[in-house]
Please model this.
Amino acid sequence: MKRGLIVRALLAVMLAVGLAAALAGCGEKHEAVTGSAGATQSFTLMLDWFPNADHAGIYQALADQDFAKAGLDVHVEVPSDPATPLKLLAAGKIDAAISYEPEVLLARNQFTPLVSVAALVQEPLTSIVSLGSKHITSPAKLKGKRVGDAGIPYQHAYLTTILAKAGVPAGSVKEINVGANLVPAMLSGRVDATLGAFWNYEAIQLAQLHKRPNVIHMEQVGVPNYDELVVVVRKDTIVNHPDLVRRFVQALGRGYAAVRRDPQAAVTNLVHASPDLDPKLQLASIEATLPAFFPSDSANPWGWQDPKQWAAYGQWMLSNHLISNPNAVLDASTNELLAGQGLL
Model:
């Protein structure tokens, strides 16, 4: 992952400047957010994982024909592996991908020219979750416990950061890689808690099983705030086809606005697209996540990404040696394509 090529670093900066210049000429007030009459453009979006409540606005926008009204024929694909979307995006196999802020920075650390253009979920969903019977209500109570995670390096760094802030010796906590089996690992007693379960999904699932889960939120115990889910495109797509991305992002924003107006209808559309989903769990998850789908400041449009937050989280990744290239953080996200944004 570490590359010390100065020339490539300079190229990354030059590309970033080029992106800013290109965006300066494509302000939102000069661009239409509806397609040409009778013409549609194909647009492929890959999810980060299987369809779930986090993606409700995508399927709502499809059901309401928001994409079609914007002149887009959107095809949604589901990856076989969460590591796949950004690789396929970088290779030009898809037009956009749903991913995670840390994954975007990891990709950019390898000089992959990807940019986040909207925040789908504007706060961390990743959390420390445990069964109520374990009485783990604070990081201090992790001492002497077994914590399961998915074996992702930045999750290990989360745990290290949290334990250090709480004054808990790292050696007193046993970290166990349980892969994707976060809930089974807790229910079976293999681990006492998991770091990686989402408070809006696995925690709700456990609550519906009457396990009275305790949840510790990352950003409240030492990990910098970040956008859990984001919409990512290639930098050259923004430069060469800004109107295409703008129409997609703003249609998606209308889908999430519809979810807020009628969560039950959103569940109906989501389950219609993926019949194996549990409607009760999806509705509870959507209702819990609604505030995180939108900026805390109502003056900002749907999809808003706080540049200071991205910079702080990027610095944390640099400090924890998760990335080594400072340019990975520079212009990793943009708000220029959101409703009402863009330079005149």
